[in-house]
Amino acid sequence: MRRLLHTTLSALLAVAAATGIAATARAADATGPITGLAGKCVDVAASATANGTPVQLYTCNGTAAQQWTVVADRTVRAFGKCLDVQGGINADGTKVQLWDCNGNPQQQWTYDPARLTLVNPATGRCLDARGQSDADRTPLQVWTCNGQTNQRWTLPTGQGCQRAVPVGEHAVPVVLGGTRYDVTVYVPASAPATAPLVLNLHGTGSWGANQLYYSDMKVAADANGFLVAAPSGAMPNGDGYAWNVPGVGSYPPGSRDDVAFLDQVITTLTGSLCGDPKRVYATGYSGGGRMTSAYACARPDRVAAIAPVAGLRAGRPDPADASRPDTASCRPSVSVPVVAFHGRQDATNPYDGGGSDVWRYSVPAAQQRWAAINGCTGSPTSTTVSTHVTSTAYRCGADVVLYTVSDGGHTWPGTPRPSPGNGSTTQEINANTLMWQFFTRYTR
Q1: In CATH, what class is 9-22+161-439?
Q2: Would you say the pTM of this structure is higher than 0.85?
C-alpha cells in the first residue's frame, strides 16, 4: 500500500524519545488479602521479613503475613517490603519473594480486573501458583500468562484510579517477553477517571503515531472522552512497519507474536491509563484493519467491538477456494460486533476481492462470515446514507455493519489528511464519528 508520511520516522522517534514517559496509574492505597485458587491467600512464608522470603499460597487466616498493600506506585507490599521477581529474571518459574523496595522493574505489577491477572510488566509474565496447586505452601512464581485459574487473583479494593499520564500525546512503554516497545497514546482532557480505550492500528509501511495523525482520531477522542492507543508493528516495511497477521504472509522465524503483543498493550494500558477493560475497542487501516480483524478472531474476549477501515477480514483466504474465507481460521468463542468502512475504488484491497495473496475474497464475503459468526439470521438491510455512501447491516445481538463508499479509494473516510496515490477520500461520512457511535452500544 502507499503510505502517508507527515514526518520522517527518525524525527518521530526522536520526539518519542524526548517525550516518552513511563506511565503509572495511581490509585488510593488499598490494604487487605489477595486471594487466588480455592479462595486461599497470598502469604509471606512463616511471617518472615528477611529479603528473599518466599511468597506462597496459604489458607486465609487474617495474619499480617496476608495483609498486602497495593500502592499507587504499582508495588504490592507486606511488612513494608515489596513483592519481587527474583533477580528480575525473565523466565517461567522464577521465584516471587519479599524484598526491600528499591524501585526496580521486577517490583512493578499491573492488575487486569477483566482477567484477574497480576502482571509484572518487566517480564511480561503473570503471578502464578506453581503447578496449578491450591495446597497450602504452594510457592508463587511468574509464568507466561495463559488465563488459567492459578493466575487469577482478587485484590483489596481501592478508591478509584488517578491517571498519571498527562493530557496529550505521549509514548508509553509496553513490555513483551522482556523487550520494551513504546506505544503512542492520546489522553484527551475530557477523559473520565476510568475511560474507554480504542486501539488504532496503522497500515503496512506506517507506524503508530503516523496512524493517529492520519486518522485524525484525536478530534473524536476530545469530543467523546475516550483514550487512544496507537501501537506499531515490529517488522520493518518500507519507511515503517507491518503487522504479523496470523495465518497470512511469510515472516522471519522469531517474529513478534502480535496477538500476544496486543494482549499486553491492553493489559498494560487499561492499568496505567485507567482504561476500562470492559470497553476496549479496536480499529485499524488496511494492514491494521486486517490485524484488527485477526485479533478479534483470536481474542474476542478482549474487545467489545471492532471497526476495520479498508481492511475487513474474517480469517485467511480458503486454500481450496480463495474467493471465500477459511472458516476454520476464524472461530471466535463469543460474538464480536463489527462496523467496517471500504471504498469500491480501493485498488490495494479490492472491494470485490482479488489483489494480493493476503486479501483475495471480497469485503461483502467477510461481512457475511462475521454475520454468521455472530449468529445474525435473515437478509441484511441496505440504507442510502448519502450520495456515494450506503450501509449494509446484519442486525442481531452483535450487529455487523458495512459502509460502502462508491467513489472511495484506499482511504479513511472523513479524515482531512491527504493520502497521495490512494484514491478519493470521502467527506460525506466520518469513520471516527460513526465507529464511536457504534462502539458505545457495546461492552464486554
Answers
A1: alpha beta
A2: no
